[in-house]
Each structure stands twice: as structure tokens, then as C-alpha cells.
Amino acid sequence: MFARTWSGMIAWRAARGSYRVPDTLTGPGASFRHCITQLAGRWKNWVSSYIEQRLSEGRPLQWYEEAKLASGAFATLLALRLDYDYAMQVHEGEQSGFWNAAALGDSCVFQVRGHQVISHFPIKSSADFGISPSLLGSNAHPDLVCRRTLFYNGPFKEGDEFFLMTDALAAWFLSAVENSSPSELEGIVDQLRVFSRTGNRSTFATWLSSLRVAGALRNDDITFMHICTSGRSGDGNS
Predict the structure, then answer these.
(1) Which among 234, 223, 104 is positioned nearest to 164, based on CA atoms?
(2) Side-chain half-sphere CA neighbours of 31 within 13 A
(3) CA gap 68, 134 in Å, rounded
(4) Rounded distance, CA 37 to CA 3, Å?
(5) Pick from 158, 162, 187, 202: CA 20 to 30 A from residue 169's CA?
(6) Which DSSP symbol is given to 128?
(7) 84-101: average pLDDT
(8) What are the pLDDT digits (tens) for 55-90?
(9) How many CA atoms lie within 13 A of 187 on its CB side?
(10) Is the CB of residue 235 less than 8 Å from the CB of residue 197?
(11) What is the helix, strand, coil percentage profile of the chain, to 5?
């Protein structure tokens, strides 16, 4: 019931925290724990304001809404930070750097170079996608969140792209990576690049519907974000 609000808070806090404190996504240390603690506090403040608003409107919470709020909201976490290494650029003559990611749940990031997926995180195999993944709960203790969250760091080069996908699309794409020929994967990657451009949302939605009808894609909400380190341009579709 309140998952959309909670997921929005997660996105805002993860982006703000990793921007202000660069080591937030490098591991379950003090910076990440502080980010989660602030997120929990923001949720509690929102709940208080929401209850007051409903009372002021003459619409007090129903019993099932109270139960929902008491149990909390849940969503996946996937946060990504890119840092250019200018010393490396001077030494090697090309832009490059390192990326860090934190994940709790089965939303995934894929690092694409040309038409090859050279790394992906946090799910290792399409067979590993489950029905009940770990989620970030609004009432979860920060220590528990730190223990369950996975972290990744690796290099990137100028021209690398990153595809961020929620679980249903990530499961389909990872299966395609595992089972497609090089030429087939090239077509899939190019197709996703086209879908990420502004103005192609309806085409993307139609394509998703065709995959669902064919039984290739689980019927679930989809978010797709395309990040380019240089060269091509793209933006998110959801």
C-alpha cells in the first residue's frame, strides 16, 4: 500500500547520501549505516505527517491501514555511483574510473561495453531469481540492513554503459545474456538502447506486453534506466 512512497524515499536518500559522502556505497561501514538510519527517520516522520493529514481531512486511518503502517513498507535497493579517475586518464590517455553499487533485493545493474555484458550485480545467474527476494523494510534495524546488503566495486572505461533494471526485466535480460548468440545479444542491446531514448516509452511498453504474452517476461512492474559514460545518450523508461 505504501511501497511507492517508501521506494521514492530510498531512491532520494541513496542518491543524496552517495553524492554527499563518496564512500557510502563502498561497504557496510559508518557512512552506509548513517544513510539507512536517516532513511528510517524520514519514514517515521512521513508516517506521523500522513496520520495527521488524514485526521485533519476527517478520514482517520482504517484498521487495515493501521496494520499496514505498523508492518512497514518494503522495496528493493539498488544504488550506483560512478567516479572518474583523472590520474588514470592522464596515464592511459582515456577517461576511466571506478563504479560502486549497493543492492538489497533482485534489481540489477549490467555493465555493457560495446555489445557485451562484462559484469552484472547482484544476481549471478538467471536461475537465482526467486519469488521472495530480500527487501529493504522501513522498520528494519540498520544493523540488519548492513548485514544483508551486498556491495560491488569495479572499473569502467570511457564508452561503457550501465543498464539498471528491476527484477522481471533483469531476469529476462540475464537469461538472454546467458543463452543468446553474439549476434542475437547485439540486437537485444541495441533495442534496449533505442527504448531508453526520450519519446519511446509507448514503444517500450508495447514490447514489454509482447514479451508477457509470449510468457518470456513475468507480469510485474518494470523500471529500466540507461546510463552512458560518454558518447551515446539515453534516459530512463519505466
Answers:
(1) 223
(2) 14
(3) 19
(4) 18
(5) 158
(6) G
(7) 75
(8) 999 999 999 999 999 999 999 999 999 998 876 555
(9) 5
(10) yes
(11) 50, 20, 30
From residue 197, give the alpha-carbon distance in Å to each of 69, 105, 161, 192, 237: 37, 27, 14, 9, 8
CA 68 to CA 139: how far, in whole Å? Answer: 12
User: Hey, what's the cell of 104?
Assistant: 538489497
The rounded distance, in Å, linking the Cα atoms of 53 and 63 is 16
**Cα distance between residue 134 and residue 65, in whole Å:** 23
Phi, psi of 124 (to 5 degrees): -90, -30
Q: Where are the alpha helices (DSSP H) in the chain?
A: 3-20, 30-56, 63-71, 86-92, 142-148, 167-179, 182-195, 201-213
The pTM score is 0.90
**Cα–Cα distance between 137 and 19 in angstroms, integer?**
23
E strand or H helix at 152, and its extent? Answer: strand 150-157
What single letter denotes the amino acid at residue 238?
S
Under 8 Å between Cβ of 106 and 170: yes
**pLDDT by residue (tens digit) across 41-54?**
999 999 999 999 99
Q: What cell does 5 get? A: 512512497
How does DSSP classify residue 82?
A: E
- Taking CA atoms, 27 is separated from 65, 137, 160, 220, in Å, by 35, 19, 23, 30
* Pick from 134, 166, 140: nearest CA to 33: 140
At 200, list the grid cell.
Answer: 519511446
